[in-house]
């Protein structure tokens, strides 16, 4: 029987410096994988280096790579560095995204372009380059949002920008299937991270909590094992959007 582990594998993590990406980086290292830690800007450079250190402390190897994933050249450069450094890539996880809660009538063209750039364009070309560069039987995992299954206001550009991920995932799963590459999207509920709170009032935070098990937001610790599962024993899932959200919403 084929051993489906992360031992001696190479993982590229978009947004791997902190929050969920940082936790995944260290979890994968503890499971025996070498990690390419992508980060976006100089503001995250310190976090990326701390994560690289944590990966090495766990007994694996890592490298930090800066890049703007809305630029296709930077996406390609990320995978070039991974292949040049470690000889190949087995798993690609894209945790990047940008949140905006704003009424449609108040949203500017620049805001629209920025939101769709990071949430849709970057996600598309990350999947594209992963499909080109991954070893056979690789895994591609993108981070979506449970708002795809919700009926709500305010998140037109965030949920709208993440919505194409489902279709990118389905198409890629079919197109890469002959090489044994699985492609999935994990769509958590509202997450207890620094990205969530600036968009919401305290009253709305309490409402979001009330919609899930235990009256709580989704934690990164709830999501990391699911991503790890898809990268290992969960290989038979492909073309799917999974909604781990404690019952926040379903479809």
Automatic annotation (TrEMBL):
The keyword Oxidoreductase applies. SUPFAM superfamilies: NAD(P)-binding Rossmann-fold domains (SSF51735). Keywords: Oxidoreductase. The keyword Oxidoreductase applies. Belongs to the short-chain dehydrogenases/reductases (SDR) family. NCBIfam families: PRK12744.1. PANTHER family: NADPH-DEPENDENT ALDEHYDE REDUCTASE-LIKE PROTEIN, CHLOROPLASTIC-RELATED, RE15974P. This is SDR family oxidoreductase. The lineage of its organism: Bacteria, Bacillati, Actinomycetota, Actinomycetes, Pseudonocardiales.
């Amino acid at each position: 029987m084929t051993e489906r582990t992360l031992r001696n594998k190479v993982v590229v993590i978009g947004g791997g410096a902190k929050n969920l990406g940082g936790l995944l980086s260290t979890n994968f290292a503890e499971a025996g994988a070498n990690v390419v830690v992508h980060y976006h800007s100089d503001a995250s450079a310190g976090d990326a280096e701390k994560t690289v250190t944590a990966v090495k402390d766990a007994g694996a190897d890592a490298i930090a790579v800066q890049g703007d994933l809305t630029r296709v050249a930077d996406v390609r450069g990320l995978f070039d560095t991974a292949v040049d450094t470690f000889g190949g890539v087995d798993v690609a996880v894209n945790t990047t995204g940008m949140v905006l809660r704003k009424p449609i009538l108040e949203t500017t063209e620049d805001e629209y372009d920025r939101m769709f750039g990071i949430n849709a364009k970057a996600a598309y070309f990350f999947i594209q380059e992963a499909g080109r560069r991954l070893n056979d039987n690789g895994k591609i995992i993108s981070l979506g949002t449970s708002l795809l299954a919700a009926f709500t206001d305010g998140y037109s550009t965030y949920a709208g920008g993440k919505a194409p991920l489902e279709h990118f995932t389905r198409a890629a799963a079919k197109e890469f299937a002959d090489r044994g590459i699985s492609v999935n999207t994990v769509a958590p509920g509202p997450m207890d991270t620094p990205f969530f709170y600036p968009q919401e009032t305290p009253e709305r935070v309490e409402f979001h909590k009330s919609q899930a098990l235990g009256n709580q937001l989704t934690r990164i610790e709830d999501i990391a094992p699911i991503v790890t599962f898809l990268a290992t024993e969960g290989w038979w899932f492909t073309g799917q959007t999974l909604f781990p959200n404690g019952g926040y919403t379903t479809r």
